[in-house]
Amino acid sequence: MVQGSLKKKSTTGPKRPATLGPKRGPRQIAPKKATLIKQKKLTKKLTSGLTTMTERNLAEKAGHLELLAGGKKDRKKSAEGAKGKGQK
């Protein structure tokens, strides 16, 4: 049997509601030196090229996916377009 009554927790002021939007990512300060600016542009260009190449490779390997460009459907469309131009 319970000997005494339960202790109630005291509330500590009003609580802020949790933010519903996406969390903010880490901030980055832009470089000011010319050499660093050139390096950043070059790395951005190279990384974007690598990501497009990997996406293209994934699309070729899994050609049934419609979300990725460069799959089997894109190859069929380009082949039909080439046939149509040659017959005219």
Overall pLDDT score: 75
General form? elongated
Q: Could you spell the SSE succession in H and E letters?
A: HH
Percent helix, as a range, is 40-55%
Count of DSSP H/I helices: 2
What is the number of strand segments? 0
How large is the radius of gyration?
29 Å
* Beta-strand content estimate: under 5%
**Secondary-structure-derived class:** mainly alpha
- How many strands, what sense, and barrel or not for the largest sheet? none
Distance between the termini: 95 Å
Uncertain spans, ≥5 residues at pLDDT below 50? Answer: none
Task: Explain how this protein is built.
Residues 1-33, 47-88 are annotated as: Disordered. This protein has 88 residues and is an all-alpha fold. The chain has a domain at 34-87. Helices cover 50% and strands 0% of the residues. The protein is built from 2 helices and no strands. The protein has helices spanning 34-61, 72-87. The radius of gyration is 29 Å and the shape is elongated.
Summarize the structure.
Residues 1-10 have a biased composition (Basic residues). The chain has helices at residues 34-61, 72-87.
Can you lay out the helices and strands and say which pair or pack?
Layout: H1 34-61, H2 72-87
What brief labels describe this structure?
mainly alpha; 88 residues; single chain; 2 helices; UPF0390; elongated; 50% helix
